[in-house]
């Protein structure tokens, strides 16, 4: 049980120092889990991270579960995952409670007009990076264009797109 | 009942969003159509705040969306939905780690998934651009200043690739001086 508590606290620290996407967890993860606790080697950490990218779900939660499981089995995995999300829950809920009045200020509304434009640019840029990684030949370009057409023309669930693309990938890749 | 729906929806998001936090965006847009828990503009604001506060992007957005739907408990339950999905997916893989790591089937699947995810996120990017840049109160209008600022940010993000928080703060400051 002490080990589970230790996992929970360690991954809370990692969660609290991760800003933005999953990759930003790596420096703090290395410091806490590889250097301080010596639970895994750096290579194992990078393996778990790479694997988590190739799985559904939030990358940082998946990585935490891998390491927690390695240290203390299924319970270790559960406690690590809960630790990883605990800071988000606390911080975001605090912001939500505070924000209800916060958004009424005119200066905040003005600031968010600029911030929304930045978010547009950030997400478009992220999309371009994903495009470069994903579209590597004519087949993947076909999958990209077909998905885009279907998404714009029909009110279809993203789940269906992912499932169809998985099947096509398995059938068509060499 | 609402809590159950929230848990279920975020369990699904966790099971089917591939590619980290950003990949949850297309699903969050679907939630807007389905339940009206939050508006398009609120979702863009959620992204901005989730990028600039501690915690992984996808987790922060889930807590946010859950709170907007059903208060504090909603925020907790939505996040636990994501955690449960991660446990369902990751624990079995932990047991057969080496097999999964070297699986040709997984590599083949991702050959198909990656371009589809790029398309999915492009549709979300388009929705975000529509709300932040092309519309005023739901009506289409061309905003010259906003378009210029957008292009300048896009260029500097591509060129310098600093942390998102840096650009978000810059955007807030610019909005104080330029009418957008």
Secondary structure blueprint with pairings:
The complex is a heterodimer of chains A (174) and B (180).
Chain A: H1 2-16, E1 19-20, H2 26-36, H3 42-53, H4 59-102, H5 106-134, H6 138-153, H7 158-172
Chain B: H1 2-16, H2 25-35, H3 40-51, E1 55-56, H4 57-95, H5 97-101, H6 104-134, E2 135-136, E3 139-140, H7 144-160, H8 164-177
Antiparallel strand pairs in B: 2-3
Helix pairs in contact in B: 1-4, 3-4
Task: Explain what you see.
The complex is a heterodimer of chains A (174) and B (180). With 174 residues, chain A is mainly α. Chain A has 2 domains: 2-102, no CATH class; 106-172, no CATH class. Chain A has helices at 2-16, 26-36, 42-53, 59-102, 106-134, 138-153, 158-172, and one strand spanning 19-20. Chain A is globular and about 55 Å long. The model of chain A has no long low-confidence stretch (mean pLDDT 92). A two-stranded antiparallel ribbon of chain B has the order 2-3. In chain B, strand 2 (135-136) and strand 3 form a beta hairpin. In chain B, helix 1 (2-16) packs across helix 4 (57-95) and helix 3 crosses helix 4. The longest helix of chain B is centred in the middle third of the chain and has 39 residues, at 57-95. The radius of gyration of chain B is 18 Å and the shape is globular. The N and C termini of chain B lie far apart (41 Å). The model of chain B has no long low-confidence stretch (mean pLDDT 92). At the A-B interface, strand 1, helix 3, helix 4, helix 5 and helix 6 of A face helix 1, helix 2, helix 3, strand 1 and helix 4 of B. Strand 1 of chain A pairs parallel with strand 1 of chain B.
The portion of residues forming beta strands of chain A comes to: under 5%
- Count of individual helical segments of chain A: 7
The biggest sheet of chain A, with number of strands, parallel, antiparallel or mixed sense and barrel status, is: none
**What is the CA-based Rg of chain A, rounded?**
20 Å
| Percent helix range of chain B | over 70%
């Amino acid at each position: 049980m002490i080990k589970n508590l230790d996992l929970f606290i360690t991954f809370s620290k990692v969660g609290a120092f991760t800003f933005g996407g999953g990759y930003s967890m790596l420096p703090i993860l290395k410091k806490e889990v590889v250097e301080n606790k010596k639970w895994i080697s750096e290579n194992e950490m990078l393996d778990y991270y790479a694997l988590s990218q190739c799985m559904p779900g939030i990358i940082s939660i998946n990585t935490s579960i891998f390491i927690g499981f390695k240290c203390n089995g299924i319970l270790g995995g559960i406690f690590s995952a809960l630790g990883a999300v605990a800071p988000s829950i606390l911080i975001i809920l605090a912001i939500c409670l505070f924000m209800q009045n916060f958004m009424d200020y005119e200066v905040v509304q003005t600031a968010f007009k600029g911030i929304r434009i930045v978010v547009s640019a950030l997400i478009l840029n992220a999309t371009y990076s994903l495009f470069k990684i994903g579209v590597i030949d004519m087949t993947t370009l076909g999958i990209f264009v077909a998905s885009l057409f279907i998404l714009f023309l029909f009110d279809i669930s993203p789940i269906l797109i992912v499932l169809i693309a998985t099947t096509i990938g398995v059938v068509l890749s060499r | 009942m609402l809590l159950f729906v929230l848990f279920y929806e975020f369990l699904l998001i966790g099971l089917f969003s591939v590619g980290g936090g950003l990949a949850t965006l297309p699903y969050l847009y679907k939630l807007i159509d389905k339940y009206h828990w939050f508006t398009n503009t609120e979702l863009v604001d959620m992204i901005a705040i989730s990028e600039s506060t501690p915690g992984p992007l996808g987790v922060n957005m889930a807590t946010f969306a859950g709170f907007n739907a059903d208060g504090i408990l909603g925020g907790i339950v939505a996040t636990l939905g994501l955690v449960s999905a991660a446990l369902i997916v990751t624990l079995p893989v932990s047991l057969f780690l080496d097999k999964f790591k070297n699986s040709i089937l997984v590599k083949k699947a991702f050959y198909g998934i990656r371009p589809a995810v790029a398309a999915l996120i492009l549709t979300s990017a388009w929705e975000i651009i529509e709300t932040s840049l092309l519309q005023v109160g739901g009506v289409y209008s061309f905003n010259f200043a906003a378009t210029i600022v957008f292009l300048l940010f896009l260029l500097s993000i591509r060129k310098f690739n600093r942390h998102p928080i840096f650009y978000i703060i810059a955007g807030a400051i610019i909005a104080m001086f330029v009418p957008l």
